[in-house]
Amino acid sequence: MLIALNKPYGVHCKFTDDQAPPRPTLAAFGLPPRVYVAGRLDHDSEGLLLLTDDGLLNQRLTDPRWKAPKTYLAQVEGTITEDALARLRGGVTLNDGPTLPAGARAIEPPAWLWPRDPPIRFRKTVPDGWIELVLREGRNRQVRRMTAAVGLPTLRLVRVAIGPYALDGLAPGAWREVAAPARPDGDAAGPRRSHRPHRPGPPHRPRRR
Question: Which residues does the annotation mark as catalytic?
Answer without folding.
Answer: 42
